[in-house]
Amino acid sequence: MLRQSAALLSFAAAALALSSGDLSVKLTAVASSVASIDDIILTAVVSNPTAEDIKLVKFNSVLDKLPTKSFKVKKGDEEVKFHGIDVVPALGSEDAFVTIAAGESIAVNHTVATSYDFEAVGPGTFTFEVITNLQVSEGDEITHFALDAASVDVEVTDDVTKRTVFPDGSSSRTSTPVCDDGNRRQYMADALTEARAVAGGAAHNIRQDPWSGNYNDYFNHANHDEVWWNFDRIAGDLPSSGNRGLHCRDRPDGICYTGGIAAYVLLVTSGSDIISSEAYFCDWFFTSTRDLRSVCSGVDFPWTRSSVMLHELSHAVFGSDDTVYGCDGSRGLDTNGKKWNADNYSCFGMTNWRQYNC
């Protein structure tokens, strides 16, 4: 059975003098019933009826053609786990954005077979709901806002066998730089050392000052022990935190070539367990990021190698989400959103490090 709905814009913040109704998204399915998850094709049409062009971050939204998390998927009340790619955008690159011209629309087709673990829940009717967080760019500002929900139902009658984004799968060792270039390998090793130090400082701060203003900003009333444990696992980088290689070259079938990406993590899951989480660092990471100390002279967090590395390790170690990018948007989430959003960890950690080390 096919169910669809349109979505209008509701704002957590305003930009470009936008108001409710200035953007809309419509979600449809090519077929309401299919035999295999390979046959699921969803089309999202995002329309801009205003008199101004609107520039948006494209990743982790329905504007993104890559196998990132564009939808929440359920079978009845049961969530279908995402196991695709988590991207850190290179916000200094125009390739990280898409512009919807005034009075125009953009249509994006999505296939989802490799991005979600349908096998774990079996055949049946699946509800695909658009990830509602979008981010608009105006000058140097990135503003977070949310679309109203749009969803569509698709029945899968037979084949839900698990697929992976890259068919050969992948596994390696605990957060170890893998690189044929000595300079890049050292750059990643230094980034890893910095990210571990930032995470360790954040874990220590949670124990020493659990009700700090920074904690309230980035985690509200989230359980202190659980947030501490997430940071501590990154800081310790123990085998119990999972196995992964940190690669300075993209895979031959990877996604760095599309542009606008600093790094990405490929998650391989079994049920709720992460069994592999390889991280790939694109050219922008090596050419455009700065070291940790640069934040003391005013460099923004997303432009540092330590922030990018910490963001990716949060995906790799405990499966954080990319609900919203940036510190401003991260502070605006509800408690559960803050607990699971990757940039809440990188922003809290970096804010804490700068406060005590600069």
From TrEMBL:
Q: What's an example Gene Ontology biological process for this entry?
A: proteolysis
Q: List the disulfide bonds.
A: C179-C248, C256-C282
* Molecular function GO labels: metal ion binding; metalloendopeptidase activity
The answer to keyword Transcription applying to this record is: no
Top-rank taxon of the source lineage equals Eukaryota
Quote the record's binding site residues for Zn(2+).
Answer: H311, H315, D322
Q: Which Pfam families match?
A: Peptidase_M35
Names of the cofactor(s): Zn(2+)
Q: Which Gene3D superfamilies match?
A: 2.60.40.2970, Collagenase (Catalytic Domain) (3.40.390.10)
Q: Which SUPFAM superfamilies does the entry mention?
A: Metalloproteases ('zincins'), catalytic domain
| Documented EC number(s) | 3.4.24.39
Q: Which UniProt keywords apply?
A: Cleavage on pair of basic residues, Hydrolase, Metal-binding, Metalloprotease, Protease, Signal, Zinc, Zymogen
- The signal peptide annotation in the UniProt record is 1-17
The record's listing under InterPro entries reads: Fungal_M35_metalloproteases, MetalloPept_cat_dom_sf, Peptidase_M35
Active site (record annotation): E312
Q: Provide the cofactor note recorded for this chain's UniProt entry.
A: Binds 1 zinc ion per subunit.
Q: Which reaction does it catalyse?
A: Preferential cleavage of bonds with hydrophobic residues in P1'. Also 3-Asn-|-Gln-4 and 8-Gly-|-Ser-9 bonds in insulin B chain
Which family does the record claim for this protein? Belongs to the peptidase M35 family.
Would you tell me the protein name for this molecule?
A: deuterolysin
Gene source species:
Pterulicium gracile
